[in-house]
Design goal:
12 helices, 8 strands, 13% strand, single chain
Length: 363
């Protein structure tokens, strides 16, 4: 039972398909000195971990960016990469990046004073986009992308790319995400942050030992939002568990071990990043999300999950009205938020079929 339980609990790391693929990726670190965040703070040594698959062609027009999602690493898009999937490394040069705060790229847990632990400044989606832009241009010599494809917080980054750098890519794909974190999503995130912080062991973020009880409460809350009501009611976890496994055993996996080894300050930082995202606050748009979305020049394949509780399909449908070249294709799934990352074979096929067809369209 344990391997599947971890698979479900770590859908954001997405070791759900072709796990060897991530090991085959060329994994590297890109370092920037004195990286200034949009909030004004400076990271003395900012590191972005990334992995690549395939090769850059002579025309430099086959690059696809895959920005990571919540607490994920560069393996987070294995479900999309392979000779039988939408992104064949024989055709594309794939670059998967890891966000600030995941514990590998620059994070509260791996930074030194005076920005260690709870003193680490909040990094925004735009900060992550800017760091990735420098990686692409300064390190890899990439000045244009065939596509940006993102799930969840990766989808937030894809939207931000299209608003901040409208001519940098040919198209974007967004699965299970929105261009703004709407208030109900902030309520969810705040409840999870509070769950961690109220553990006495948290000590304002200067904990000696991990705030275990707080992290367990965080996992329990997260479990209630990750999948749809139908997923729980119909016990869709059953095919991967031994006969007789009950609801309680599945729930306890989330409650006790949602992000194994995850650092509490890192977990909170990326939730703060998530909370603050709004393409409308991009410089030049004055907080107007409609105008920011209307500025997107490239074709957009927008694929919310029909049962997502994080990024409800109603919010996505509202945003889609303002995007000029949008193909709005909800994922018909009971797997909630995780449908956007191919958490089951049916959703994997749906995503790969539609993304593959979208990528094959003329520019």
């Amino acid at each position: 039972m344990r391997p599947l339980l971890r698979r479900l609990a770590l859908l954001f790391a997405l070791l759900v398909a072709a796990p060897a693929l991530a090991k085959d990726g060329d994994r590297q670190a890109f370092v920037m000195q004195d990286f200034r965040l949009e909030g004004g703070a400076v990271l003395p040594r900012a590191t972005i971990i990334y992995a690549t698959w395939g090769k850059l062609n002579a025309a430099h027009d086959n690059v696809v960016l895959l920005p990571s999602h919540y607490m994920a690493d560069a393996s987070g898009y294995n479900w999309l990469i392979g000779p039988d999937k939408a992104l064949d490394p024989a055709r594309y040069f794939l670059v998967a990046t890891e966000m600030f705060g995941n514990g590998k790229s620059t994070s509260p847990s791996n930074s030194l004073e005076p920005i260690d632990g709870p003193r680490f400044p909040v990094t925004t989606i735009r900060d992550n986009v800017e760091a990735t832009r420098r990686l692409l241009q300064d390190e890899l010599g990439v000045k244009h992308l065939a596509a940006v494809i993102g799930f969840s917080m990766g989808g937030q980054q894809a939207f931000q790319w299209a608003v901040s750098h409208p001519d940098f890519m040919d198209r974007i794909v967004v699965t299970a995400a929105t261009a703004k974190t709407w208030p109900h999503g902030i309520v969810r995130l705040e409840s999870q942050i509070i769950a961690i912080q109220t553990d006495p062991a948290f000590k304002g973020g200067d904990y000696v030992d991990p705030p275990k009880k707080g992290l367990e409460a965080f996992g329990a809350i997260w479990a209630g939002w990750l999948f749809s009501q139908a997923w729980w009611r119909e016990e869709l976890w059953k095919p991967g568990y031994p006969p007789g496994t009950d609801f309680r055993a599945v729930f306890e996996g989330f409650h006790k071990d949602f992000i194994p080894g995850g650092d509490a300050n890192d977990i909170i930082l990326q939730m703060r990043t998530w909370e603050q995202h709004d393409v409308g606050t991009t410089p030049g748009f004055g907080g107007d999300v409609k105008r920011a979305l209307a500025s997107i020049k490239v074709p957009v394949l927008y694929m919310p999950s029909q049962t997502d509780l994080y990024f409800p399909v109603e919010d996505a449908a509202y945003e889609a009205k303002f995007i000029p070249k949008v193909t709005f294709t909800p994922i018909p799934s009971k797997w909630g938020h995780t449908a956007g990352a191919a958490s089951n074979p049916a959703d994997a096929k749906f995503l790969n079929d539609h993304i593959g067809a979208f990528m094959a369209q003329p520019r």
